[in-house]
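Support reply, case 0932

Customer input (verbatim):
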Amino acid sequence: MQYLISVIDDESTADAADGSGDVGAFNERLRADGYLVFVAGLDSPATAAVVDNRGDAAIFTDGPYLESKEYLGGLWIVEAPDLDVALKLAAEASRVCNRKLEVRPFADE
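Our regenerated output:
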């Protein structure tokens, strides 16, 4: 089963040390152990664009969809046998990146 581990960033942690060396080592261990599907950090919400093409014409808006103190700062997609393993991996990830995380399974098709 695949799980999305979302990094929850906010204004209080935006400039905090993220332990990048520790994150890199953690990512390498995930890869070596066969858990890692994809990992990436995201740029600032100020670089976001919202696209809405539900009407007659597409509307493009600069900036994030929501004005919020918290935002998606990055993500891991991991392959884990069950939620307990995904949560264990997320606990380790939270420690090395110094952020709160959200864990969600991908929906069954």
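We compared this against your earlier run and they match. Two observations from our side: The first strand starts at residue 2 and ends at 10. DSSP finds two helices and six strands in the chain. Please reopen the case if you see a mismatch on your end.
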